Amino acid sequence: MRLLLCEIENEGSTVERELSQTWLQEVLSGAGPIEFRALQGNTISLKARRLGLDVTIESSFTLRLAPECAACAREFKMDVVVAFALNLKPKPRKKKVLADDVELSSQELDEFFYEGDAINLEEIFREQVLLALPMYPRCTPECQGLCPSCGANLNQGNCGCDRGDLDPRLAVLQTLNKH
Ligand SMILES: [Zn+2]
Ligand SMILES: [Zn+2]
């Protein structure tokens, strides 16, 4: 997934690319403990502009994913909005060798580069997709999750275990009252 500089018109260009499901799934596998499944037919869209040698990229699109609920582990469908804007500069040619103890300033670390006559969209989108993913997706805001004792799905009713799910503040009061 590359964007050639010559594809960007002077007045800016809107680019749409269909995402390979395999590629997206590979990116999602880096999401951490929660599993996100890539659904078919996801497209990215971006607007690119050139300002001298700099290129700005603005992008906003919705991914259709199927994550596992962080509470009950049920797979559900979810729209994840990816939106970002960044500025890319041409990668500087290898400078004189830097001494080992010279650290990059934080500003340099925040800069994005392209190399030669093309922008590597894969790298950019990999990072932005991962940033956009929710840490704890829930199938519904009211999801009750699983019983910690027996593993029953509490959305399907109470399993009858004593989960001591009394409000912890009330529990403290109860203990105090006993003394
Ligand atoms: Zn759930
Ligand atoms: Zn239970």
Question: Short summary of the structure?
Answer:
This protein is an alpha+beta fold and 179 residues long. Helix content is 20%, strand content 30%.
Number of strands: 8
Helix content: 10-25%
Could you give a short account of the major beta sheet?
A: 6 strands, mixed
Total of DSSP H or I helical runs spanning 4+ residues: 4
The coarse overall form would be elongated
Strand content: 25-35%
Question: What is the fold's blueprint, element by element?
Answer:
Blueprint: E1 2-4, E2 13-18, H1 21-28, E3 36-38, E4 43-51, E5 54-67, E6 78-90, H2 106-109, E7 112-114, E8 118-120, H3 121-132, H4 168-178
Parallel strand pairs: 6-7
Antiparallel strand pairs: 1-8, 2-4, 3-5, 4-5, 5-6
This protein binds zinc ion (ZN) (2 copies).
What do these coordinates show?
Strand 6, helix 2 (106-109) and strand 7 form a beta-alpha-beta unit. This protein is elongated. It has helices at 21-28, 106-109, 121-132, 168-178, and strands at residues 2-4, 13-18, 36-38, 43-51, 54-67, 78-90, 112-114, 118-120. Strands 2, 3, 4, 5, 6 and 7 form a six-stranded mixed β-sheet that branches. A two-stranded antiparallel ribbon has the order 1-8. The mean pLDDT is 86. By secondary structure, it is an alpha+beta fold. It is 20% helix and 30% strand. The chain has two domains: 2-94 and 103-143, no CATH class; 146-179, no CATH class. One zinc ion is lined by residues 147, 149-150, 152, 159, 161.
